[in-house]
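NAD(P)/FAD-dependent oxidoreductase
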Amino acid sequence: MGATNGTAGEDPNRPGYDVIVVGAGAAGLSAALVLGRARRRVAVVDSGTPRNAPAAHMHGFLSRDGMPPAELTAVGRAEVAGYGVTVFDALADGITTDGDVFRVRLAGGAALTARRVLVATGLRDELPALPGVRERWGRDVLHCPYCHGYEVRDAPLGVLGTGPGAVHQALMVRQWSPDVVLFAQGLDPDPEQREQLAARGVRVEETPVKRLVVADDALRGVELTDGRVVPRTAVFVAPRMVPRDGLLAGPEWVRDETTGALVTDATGRTSVAGVWAVGNVTDPRAQVPVAVGAGAAAAMDINNGLVAEDVARAVAAARAVSATTGA
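Structure:
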């Protein structure tokens, strides 16, 4: 689907698209919308595995608070299609260059070509291997209190100690409920942290967790290895966030020496000229509104560069004609 953007008289030998956007989440569709409205030839490639698929609703997005993530995606796809953007439901499994042309390979062997590429492939959450966590993820096993805290306000809540950040998460979750238990899971808060937790009324449970107790399709409690069950309505957990950046493998992609994260500038430009990366693939903390803004900013930067390139080519062509005709 989609239509050809641009103006008459353009080079028929140019790449198939001005821009290929890999990923149709909030960041990718936002970029595609801006680029489509700029009359660019845009393709979006998406594998259909969004990070927020388990969540019934998203929150904190002005004018879209409470909207199901799938509905936002459907609306976004319809909007970009209205501007001639072509959407491919496929997995992109490689990016190569041929001079100043990028080739995005799709699973199965087909390939698309473009002048620029924007990667917005997001990330995946690695969850602790406890029975019930994966099954309840995005429902009553939660990650972001800004996204879901209000919906479980004043309820008995838990925080699983998956790493050093669990203390901070427990102190934050306390903002939404006076009844919070930190299940340490081997985590040993230092004296200052224990003082903070005690001062805020957050209980630390040292006994390891065995499983989450679920009944009638709802979380009922947290069972410990000694057989006790601590009643809880929801549990927060900080997963290990793994960027889906396999497309960007190789020494040419500069990464942070400490974290291994892809390095980009404020507009999403990577170390490879002509390739941008935005959203959760580079910023794990980017919620939907932040990802939307990042996608729009990258799209404008991409289009500005394409405009400069188009002008330079037009000037060169005009000079060639002038030299040939003697005008």
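The two ends are 44 Å apart (CA to CA).
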